[in-house]
Structures are given as structure tokens and as C-alpha cells.
């Protein structure tokens, strides 16, 4: 059974703008999927519709057999706990320590009082420490997040998502603000998580070469429509043209040739 | 247009503006029968009189315990109104800020309420509340409370929006509830600014409280008014000196706190 199924998902902003246009695809458990496309293609909207940070206009999204658009209150919160999210700008509370930010990933499981007071169990704290250790952040555990480098912040973001014990990770341009070496560390980490724990990874990228290198499957989006859905090796230059439009085409083809060589 | 013509027009504009200013000033002086020469010549005498009467005398020092008692009362009312109003102000700011409002409809009313409370001056509030509470500490308390409430709401709405939606979005994505998001992400992120603004309001309110006291006949302002109207200028000046000393002290303390938390 598919973990995630999108069926004719459409999102309209106002009367004019069509951010997502009848998007249909499904994701199997354990897949590593990259969504590529130019800025403004609807990649972010697509990811945010899956954990309902954005409400879709029509269509259906089923996650683990549950229809997402109808979820309310407690059921919606439960749905979100099963999906970790990683952001381009890390979205950490910079004034708090690394460990506090990581434990935020447990807030979805808390009742109002526990959440308000930030009461975490012994076991949750140990788990947070363990995850930080595996990500190589044990030295930074009690540092404030504003003292970290971009790559370290993103690893904190990953730790916060992992502590949720999610079935899937949604990564929204996770390396767009990072230098090449930090970007590689982050992508390797995501791949490692995907391979060792079997957590499904859905990652938005605008670097085609990175997508081709890491993903088992590419979904190309342009103007809210799926242009390509298949394995990286079957993605033709013409299709990359179609996804990115003619302007960026040459540069990207160049990248692909280098990757292929 | 030629450069010459452009600069000529500029000069004519400046000259006209200057002439208008002179005409308005002179007109104002004629209308109010203000004599500039007399006005200026009286300044040295005013200073001499002020200095002669400003030094606290024997009688004034004897009144010091009473002055300090009233000053303490005033400071405590100012601190209490500032802190309690800040709690309410933060609450309204959370409802009004773009990132934390429960529904877009909350924003405008919250900002409008803040605006009304903030833009009515503390002295006006004191006069309005005088009708409800009479000459009591409550009048001063609520006058300071309302202004602080409006001010803190306003600045915290801006602070919350400045801190940004990003951590809020991240916590929503984890499934965290509204109160958890507020207490674990928004409040920690805004805390230094919040404390800083509350300290600022405490300082401001201690100063305003003196004025409010004159209007409402309570606290240190009442003492000042009383001594001044009894021609006990020495005692009135001791009130002023004591107030200045306390204001400076509070400012030093709050600056120290600010440096420590930021």
C-alpha cells in the first residue's frame, strides 16, 4: 500500500493563481523522492499541503490510509506528528539551546499543559541526545542555536524532525542556504536516514544535479503541474528543458552532462 | 527647464518660506501681546529666584520620611500597573500579530484597541478615570495601566511579527498545539524585547505617575502640589530631587538588567 497518495490535488490562490494543478502521484514507504522545478513552480505549496500547513482547494491527499484534507483538531495534530519537516531557513528558535529545539519535535504528542510548560519525559530527552550524537552534534547540545553554522542548524532541524519518530520527512529546499560542503553533509545525512531507518523522504530541490545524484525517483513540476515522474536515469534533457523552461535550460543541461560523465 | 531658472525658483521658494515664518511668528506675538525684550530679560531673574527657593530647607528635610513613603507608594503603583498591563498587552498582541492570531479577523480589532488606549494621553486617562474612581490610587493605577496596555500591545505585535513565522511554522508542522507554540517558540524568541519594553514602561510610568498624582491628588504628585501651593518651595523641591534620584536609580537598574539579558 502506498504511504502517500495525491489525487487531483489543486490549490488556487484567489481567482487567478493556480499554484497546484491536478497533481496526482503516490509514494511508497521507504522511497527517496526529489521534487524539482523552477522557483514558483509550486514545490513548497505541494509539500505544505501534505502536512496541512496549507489547505488545498480540491482533490484528496491520503497519508497512511487517512484522508488529510478533512482532518481537524486532535486528528490533524496526530497526522502532523507522523511527518517531520525540514526547512530552507532551518526555522529554529535561535535564542534557545540545541536540545530545547530538538525537543520541540515532541510537542505534537503533548497535551495543553505539558506543551505549555515544555514538560518532556526522561526517555524523550535521552532519545533527543541519542539523535544529536548520531548527527555529530553532541558538542553543541547546550549551545544557543544562533551560535551554530548553517550546516549545524540544518542538522538540528533534522534532529527535531527525527525525534518525532516520523514515517516521512518533508524537506523544503534543505540545502538552498548552505555552502556546497555543508549541503553534501545534509544530503548524505538524509540519504543515510532513508537507508538505515526506512523513513520515506520527499525533498524539494532546485539543484538538478543534486536531485539526480541522491533521489531514486524524480518528480518534475512546472506551473503547478507534474511534467515528469520517474527514475533519474530516464529523465531526458528535453524533459529538463520542459521543467525549467528554455531560459535555465542550457545551464542545467551542462550540469547533467557533468554528472553523467 | 534651464538650470538658472531652476535655481532662481528655488531661491524664491526659500525666501517665501522664510517670510511666511517671520510673518507667523510676528503675528503670533502681536496677537498674544508677547514682549520679546521683557520675556528675555526676565530669564536671569527667574533663575535667581528658582535657585534661591530650590534648596531644601530645614522644614523640608523634616518631611523627608513622608516624602519617601509617598514616593514608594507611587513607584509601587507604577511598577504594578506596568507589569500587569504588560501581561494583558502581551495577550492582546498575540491575538493581533499576523503570525500568532487565531484568525485574520482578530488583527484589526486588536490593533484598534491598542491604538485607542495608547493615543489617549495618560493625563487625559487620569481625568476621565477621576469620574469613576475619584481621588484614589486606583485612578492613577488605571491611567498608567491603560496607556501601558496600549503601548505594550502595539510594540509586541511588531516584535512578534519581526521575529517571524518560521519557528511558528516549524512547530505547527510537528503537530504542536497553539499554547505550546506560543509558550515554546514565540515567547522565548520575544522575551528580551518584552522585558526591555516592560522596563521602559516602568521608567516612563514612574515619571508619568508624578504628573498623574498632581491631577488625581494621590502619591508623590499630591505632595508636590500640596507643598507648592503652600509656598513651601523647599519641600516641593525636595520632592522633585527625591523623584529624580529614584528615576535615575530605576534607570540604572533596568539598564543593568537589559545588558544582562540581551
Automatic annotation (TrEMBL), chain A:
User: Can you provide one Gene Ontology molecular function annotated for this UniProt record?
Assistant: ATP hydrolysis activity
| Top-level taxon | Bacteria
A single GO CC term for this protein reads: membrane
The question of whether Ligase is a record keyword is answered with no
Has the keyword Membrane been applied to this entry?
yes
Question: What InterPro entries does this protein's entry cite?
Answer: AAA+_ATPase, ABC_transporter-like_ATP-bd, ABC_transporter-like_CS, ABC_transpr_PhnC, MetN_ABC_transporter-like, P-loop_NTPase
* NCBIfam families attached to this UniProt entry: ABC_phnC
Q: Report the PANTHER family cross-referenced here.
A: AMINO ACID IMPORT ATP-BINDING PROTEIN, PHOSPHONATES IMPORT ATP-BINDING PROTEIN PHNC
Report the protein name in the record.
Phosphonate ABC transporter ATP-binding protein
Which organism is this entry from?
Chloroflexus islandicus
UniProtKB/TrEMBL annotation, chain B:
**Gene Ontology MF terms in the entry:** ABC-type phosphonate transporter activity
Q: Which protein family is it in?
A: Belongs to the binding-protein-dependent transport system permease family.
Please state where this protein is localized. Answer: Cell membrane
Isomerase keyword on record: no
Query: Which cellular component appears as one GO term in the record?
Result: plasma membrane
| Membrane topology reported for the UniProt record | Multi-pass membrane protein
Q: What is its main location?
A: membrane
Q: Which InterPro entries match?
A: MetI-like (IPR000515), MetI-like_sf (IPR035906), PhnE/PtxC (IPR005769)
| Keyword terms of this UniProt record | Cell membrane, Membrane, Transmembrane, Transmembrane helix, Transport
Annotated membrane-spanning segments are: 12-30, 75-96, 177-202, 209-228, 234-257
ABC transmembrane type-1 domain ranges (all copies): 71-254
Fetch the Pfam families from UniProt.
BPD_transp_1
Name by which UniProt lists this protein: Phosphonate ABC transporter permease
Q: Does the keyword Membrane apply?
A: yes
Amino acid at each position: 500500500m502506498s504511504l502517500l497518495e495525491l489525487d487531483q490535488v489543486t490549490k488556487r490562490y484567489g481567482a487567478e493563481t493556480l499554484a497546484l494543478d491536478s497533481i496526482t502521484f503516490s509514494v511508497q514507504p521507504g522511497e527517496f523522492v526529489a521534487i524539482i522545478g523552477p522557483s514558483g513552480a509550486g514545490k513548497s505549496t505541494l509539500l505544505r499541503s501534505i502536512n496541512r500547513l496549507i489547505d488545498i482547494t480540491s482533490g484528496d491527499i491520503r497519508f497512511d490510509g487517512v484522508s488529510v484534507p478533512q482532518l481537524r483538531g486532535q486528528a490533524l495534530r496526530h497526522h502532523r506528528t507522523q511527518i517531520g519537516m525540514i526547512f530552507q531557513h532551518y526555522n529554529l528558535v535561535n535564542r534557545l539551546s540545541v536540545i530545547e529545539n530538538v525537543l520541540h519535535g515532541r510537542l505534537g504528542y503533548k497535551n495543553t499543559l505539558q506543551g505549555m510548560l515544555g514538560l518532556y519525559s526522561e526517555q524523550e530527552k535521552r532519545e533527543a541526545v541519542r539523535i544529536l550524537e548520531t548527527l555529530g552534534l553532541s558538542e553543541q547540545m547546550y549551545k544557543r542555536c544562533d551560535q551554530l553554522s548553517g550546516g549545524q542548524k540544518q542538522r538540528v532541524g533534522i534532529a527535531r524532525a527525527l525525534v518525532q519518530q516520523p514515517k516521512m520527512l518533508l524537506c523544503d529546499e534543505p540545502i538552498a542556504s548552505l555552502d556546497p560542503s555543508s549541503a553534501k553533509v545534509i544530503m548524505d545525512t538524509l540519504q543515510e536516514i532513508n537507508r538505515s531507518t526506512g523513513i520515506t523522504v520527499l525533498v524539494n530541490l532546485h539543484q538538478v544535479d543534486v536531485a539526480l545524484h541522491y533521489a531514486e525517483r524524480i518528480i518534475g513540476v512546472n506551473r503547478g503541474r507534474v511534467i515528469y515522474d520517474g527514475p533519474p536515469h530516464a529523465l531526458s534533457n528535453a524533459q529538463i528543458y520542459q521543467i525549467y523552461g528554455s531560459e535555465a535550460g542550457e545551464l542545467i543541461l551542462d550540469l547533467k552532462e557533468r554528472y553523467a560523465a | 527647464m534651464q538650470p538658472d531658472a531652476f535655481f532662481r525658483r528655488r531661491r524664491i521658494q526659500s525666501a517665501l518660506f522664510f517670510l511666511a515664518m517671520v510673518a507667523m511668528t510676528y503675528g503670533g506675538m502681536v496677537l498674544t501681546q508677547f514682549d520679546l525684550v521683557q520675556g528675555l530679560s526676565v530669564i536671569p531673574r527667574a533663575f535667581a529666584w528658582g535657585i534661591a527657593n530650590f534648596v531644601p530647607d530645614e522644614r523640608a528635610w523634616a518631611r523627608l520620611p513622608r516624602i519617601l513613603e509617598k514616593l514608594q507608594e507611587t513607584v509601587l503603583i507604577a511598577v504594578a500597573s506596568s507589569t500587569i498591563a504588560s501581561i494583558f498587552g502581551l495577550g492582546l498582541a498575540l491575538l493581533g500579530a499576523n503570525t500568532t492570531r487565531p484568525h485574520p479577523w482578530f488583527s484589526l480589532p486588536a490593533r484598534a484597541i491598542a491604538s485607542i488606549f495608547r493615543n489617549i494621553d495618560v493625563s487625559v486617562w487620569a481625568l476621565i478615570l477621576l469620574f469613576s474612581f475619584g481621588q484614589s490610587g486606583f485612578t492613577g493605577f488605571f491611567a498608567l495601566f491603560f496607556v501601558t496596555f496600549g503601548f505594550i500591545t502595539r510594540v509586541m505585535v511588531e516584535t512578534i511579527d519581526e521575529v517571524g513565522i518560521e519557528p511558528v511554522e516549524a512547530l505547527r508542522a510537528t503537530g504542536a498545539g497553539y499554547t505550546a507554540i506560543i509558550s515554546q517558540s514565540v515567547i522565548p524568541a520575544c522575551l528580551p524585547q518584552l522585558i526591555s519594553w516592560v522596563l521602559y514602561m516602568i521608567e516612563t510610568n514612574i515619571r508619568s505617575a508624578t504628573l498623574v498624582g498632581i491631577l488625581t491628588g494621590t502619591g508623590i504628585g499630591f505632595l508636590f502640589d500640596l507643598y507648592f501651593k503652600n509656598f513651601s518651595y523647599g519641600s516641593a523641591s525636595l520632592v522633585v530631587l527625591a523623584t529624580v534620584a529614584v528615576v535615575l536609580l530605576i534607570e540604572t537598574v533596568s539598564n543593568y538588567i537589559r545588558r544582562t539579558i540581551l
